[in-house]
Design a protein that fits this description.
The chain is of the alpha+beta class and about 160 residues long. It has helices spanning about 35-45, 50-70, 110-120, 135-164, and strands at about 5-15, 15-25, 75, 80-85, 100-110, 125. The protein contains four helices and six strands. A hairpin with a 2-residue loop joins β1 (about 5-15) and β2 (about 15-25). The radius of gyration is 26 Å and the shape is extended.
Length: about 160
């Protein structure tokens, strides 16, 4: 198995000058939902799909409660989930109160085995789109051209109305 990537042009400012470079970006095959994972687990084990769904839903509830309660959650082979918090910077530590602290994001630190596995992944360039298929970029370009044409027509019609 291999992970698809596609090439994307990115623009950025470097040393005050605009630069454009091409980069490899991931092309996922889709998103697996809870039901998809449950079905796959049930096919690999003796557990029924409905039982796996119930366990995964309960896991979701427990994760929320325990993260809110201040615990990190570690899954062997997957990694550790936690919560990051932030506050404004203060000159005096006594000035920081609970009101100043807020949620920042959910953190995730992958398990070292998972990192090793991912570092060994093989990559394949995404196959070209079928002939005749319009890409998002081409669609945007067509839409911009249509908008430009419509604006030009409106300006032309405005001008002609003034001349009459």
């Amino acid at each position: 198995m291999s992970y698809y990537y596609r090439i994307k042009k990115k623009s950025y400012i470097k040393n005050g000058a605009k630069e454009e470079k091409y980069f490899a970006v991931p092309k996922t095959k889709g998103t697996l939902e809870l039901e998809d994972i449950a079905k796959e687990i049930s096919q690999r084990s003796i557990a029924k799909e409905s039982a796996v769904i119930a366990v995964l839903k309960e896991l979701s509830i427990l994760m929320k409660h325990n993260l809110v309660d201040g615990y990190n959650i570690k899954f062997e082979g997957i990694g550790t989930f936690g919560v990051a918090i932030t506050s404004e910077g203060f000159d005096n530590p006594e000035d920081i109160t609970a009101r100043d602290v807020e949620y920042s994001k959910v953190t995730y630190r992958p398990d070292s085995d998972l990192v090793r596995l991912l570092k060994g992944m093989k990559y394949t360039k995404e196959p070209p789109a079928p002939k005749g298929l319009v890409t998002k970029e081409e669609f945007r370009q067509i839409r911009q051209e249509r908008k430009k044409k419509k604006l030009e027509e409106m300006e032309y019609n405005k001008k002609n109305k003034r001349l009459k």
